[in-house]
Each structure stands twice: as structure tokens, then as C-alpha cells.
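Query structure, 414 C-alpha cells:
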């Protein structure tokens, strides 16, 4: 009991200190502000998916109760309001305990020029009418909204030479930290970068204004002797606009732009996420389905050299991506209730999926020549044939499930 009494203040203190931990994904409040009333409207707030790059793997800030980190942006120019609010701070209650420097951490990623005064921020909204999209207009499209009717969007291509773009891009790329898990800022001074921006046109007091929707960065690599290979680096549609088809519109517009350039070899992506791969599959199938080599009567003959060549020549699609397009279109054209046709399709896809396992077998053959028997047994155990078949079947089912979703999406867009 005496020991408990001695330790009670420590236990009690730790419990009290735990109350000063805040989930930074909840504490960070983001907004794209069009009207003054948006500032106090909780319905316009959205939160990060990630904050670990700023606040560590636990995504926790210590030292505050009721912490709210406000990062509000004007919808077009992304002029920024940055404020830190809280109901109490740990140093007001406990001696010798320091809170995290939340403001300092945010300042590391938010470029200079923000305001900390709400009234000053609201006054910046009056300048939004002067904001115009950067660069060259590539594509215009509309999306139907039940609330607002037909909304018009524009996709522009910009580069670092556009007046005011570099400062705008510094503000825009701060969103990457909150929504892409392994995001990093790029050196926008390099003239090999291309930027593709999506904007919504909207009316305010009889004037046409533009709101930032999302963007993509693409780096142009040199390919010997006289070609380039554009590689998608980052792509983000901001949360208020997600689920409306803007990602597909953006990727298709970017693809069509590079297809118009004779010096482009093919278009790739850097470390693509699963969601990006699914989006790319959808867009490439949409582009390829009208090509003669991908006609329904050609699909059952197998993946052909004509498909590879036509996809490359007309749409700058490499062999690997063309193969996935072929598999999706063949699935769409196959009656999977017909056992024989379903079996042919399954074997065709598994033949591609088996590639990595075949590579393992080749490596095993090489190992036989240089490994001791006990080491060889260890490696052979990792390549058990039964396990390979099970993993292959799992991979096949996952791939087909993804393909079916793409086919369903194509059907709804037809």
C-alpha cells in the first residue's frame, strides 16, 4: 500500500499527461474557401489521410487539449490561412514538460506568405476574381451535380516559366504531405517537369472564378537517341472533388497530349499505387478499345505483335501495359459461363502471372551450382510447387476482380 501511495502521483500524472495527446489527422483542418461563410462552416472542412511525415509514425501531437491546426486556402490562388488553436496547453498545468512545436513543424512545409489573421484571409477572397489558370488549355469537360447542375472543368498544361506559377505550386504541393503516403516535394526549377492542372469554373457575384481541383506532375526522361519518356511522378485530386471522375479525365488528357508529340517513346509512372494502376488500366482500355488490333474477333487469337505495335505507335503504350489492356478486353469479350472459354482465358492470364515463378526456377537452377546442400534445401522450401499454384490462383482471382470493376465502369460510361 505504501508503494502504491508513492507511485500514485506518477500514475496519476501519466494519465493526466495522456489527455494532452492529439490525433493529428483529426486536429488538422483543411479547407478550400470560396465564400466568407465557408470559413466557419464545418461542412467544408476535410482532414488528412496521413500526417506521419510531419508528426511521426504515431501521427500524434503532444502537449495540447482541443488542438486544431487550421490550414485554409482560397479556392483558386491557394492563398493560405494558418492558425493553431487549443483549449489548454501542458505547460500551463505541468512543470518541466514541453509541448511539441506544432507551429514549427507546419512552417517547415507551408511556404512563406501565409496569414494568421482570419479577417486578412477573408479579404484575400476579393482578389480571387483576378486569379486565372496557368498555362495552355488542353481539355474542357462537364460533370453533372444534383445540387449545382452542370459544372465545367478545365485541364491546363503549365511549366515553371508561367508567371506566378512557382509560388502557386509551392502552395499546391503542401497537400501531397496529407494525401500521398510517401510524398516528397520536387525541384520545380528543372525544366524537364510538366505540370497538368484541373480547375472548376464557378460564378460568384456575376463573375467567373476558378477553383483548384487537382494536378499531376510529369518528368520527361531522355531516351537514346532522340526520344523522351514522360514519367508520371505525382497525381492528386483534392478530397472535395474525389469520386467525380476527375482523375480519369486528367490522365486521359495527359495521355492524349503526349501522344501528339512525335518524340515521345512511351508514358510510364514512378512507383504507381494500386489505385493509380486501376485508373491507368481504365483509361488505357478506353483509349485502346477502338484500335483495329484490339477488335473483338482478334482478342481470342491471343496477345499479338500487332497489338504491341499499334498501342506503341498510336497511343505511346508500352508492351506491359498493352498486355493488361488485352486481358481486360478479352475478359469483356469472353463468355465465362462457357467452361472451355473460361479455361482458355484463365490459362492465358496465368501464363503472364507465372513469369516471376519461372524466374525463381531459373535462379534455383543457378543456385544448385554454388550453394551447399543445406542452403539449397532452405531455398527449395521457399519455392514449394503446391504453394506456387495456390499463390498463382490467388493472384489470378485478384486480377480478374480488378478487371471486372474496370469493365463495369466502362459500361456505365458507354
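Result returned for the query:
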Amino acid at each position: 500500500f505504501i508503494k502504491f501511495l508513492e507511485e500514485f502521483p506518477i500514475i496519476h500524472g501519466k494519465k493526466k499527461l495522456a489527455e494532452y495527446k492529439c490525433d493529428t489527422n483529426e486536429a488538422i483542418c483543411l479547407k478550400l474557401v470560396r465564400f466568407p461563410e465557408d470559413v466557419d462552416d464545418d461542412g467544408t472542412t476535410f482532414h488528412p489521410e496521413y500526417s506521419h511525415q510531419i508528426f511521426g509514425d504515431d501521427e500524434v501531437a503532444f502537449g495540447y487539449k482541443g488542438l486544431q491546426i487550421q490550414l485554409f486556402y482560397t479556392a483558386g490562388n491557394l492563398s493560405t490561412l494558418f492558425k493553431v488553436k487549443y483549449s489548454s496547453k501542458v505547460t500551463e498545468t505541468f512543470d518541466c514538460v514541453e509541448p511539441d512545436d506544432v507551429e514549427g513543424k507546419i512552417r517547415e512545409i507551408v511556404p512563406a506568405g501565409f496569414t494568421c489573421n482570419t479577417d486578412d484571409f477573408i479579404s484575400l477572397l476579393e482578389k480571387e476574381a483576378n486569379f486565372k489558370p496557368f498555362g495552355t488549355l488542353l481539355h474542357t469537360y462537364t460533370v453533372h451535380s444534383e445540387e449545382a447542375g452542370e459544372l465545367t472543368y478545365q485541364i491546363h498544361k503549365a511549366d515553371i516559366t508561367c508567371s506566378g506559377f512557382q509560388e502557386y505550386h509551392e502552395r499546391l504541393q503542401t497537400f501531397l504531405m496529407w494525401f500521398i503516403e510517401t510524398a516528397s516535394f520536387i525541384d520545380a526549377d528543372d525544366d524537364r517537369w510538366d505540370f497538368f492542372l484541373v480547375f472548376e469554373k464557378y460564378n460568384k457575384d456575376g463573375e467567373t472564378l476558378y477553383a483548384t481541383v487537382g494536378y499531376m506532375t510529369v518528368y520527361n526522361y531522355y531516351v537514346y537517341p532522340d526520344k523522351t519518356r514522360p514519367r508520371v511522378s505525382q497525381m492528386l485530386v483534392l478530397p472535395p472533388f474525389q469520386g467525380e471522375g476527375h482523375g480519369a479525365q486528367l490522365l486521359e488528357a495527359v495521355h492524349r497530349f503526349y501522344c501528339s508529340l512525335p518524340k515521345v517513346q512511351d508514358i510510364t509512372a514512378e512507383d504507381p499505387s494500386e489505385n493509380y494502376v486501376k485508373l491507368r488500366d481504365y483509361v488505357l482500355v478506353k483509349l485502346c478499345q477502338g484500335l483495329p488490333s484490339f477488335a473483338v474477333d482478334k482478342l481470342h487469337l491471343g496477345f499479338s505483335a500487332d497489338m504491341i505495335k499499334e498501342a506503341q505507335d498510336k497511343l505511346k503504350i508500352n508492351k506491359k501495359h498493352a498486355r493488361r489492356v488485352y486481358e481486360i478486353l478479352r475478359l469483356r469479350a469472353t463468355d465465362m459461363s462457357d467452361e472451355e472459354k473460361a479455361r482458355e482465358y484463365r490459362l492465358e492470364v496465368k501464363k503472364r502471372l507465372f513469369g516471376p515463378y519461372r524466374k525463381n526456377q531459373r535462379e534455383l537452377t543457378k543456385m544448385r551450382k554454388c550453394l551447399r546442400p543445406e542452403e539449397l534445401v532452405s531455398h527449395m522450401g521457399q519455392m514449394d510447387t503446391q504453394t506456387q499454384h495456390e499463390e498463382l490462383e490467388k493472384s489470378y482471382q485478384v486480377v480478374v476482380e480488378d478487371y471486372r470493376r474496370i469493365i463495369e465502369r466502362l459500361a456505365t460510361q458507354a
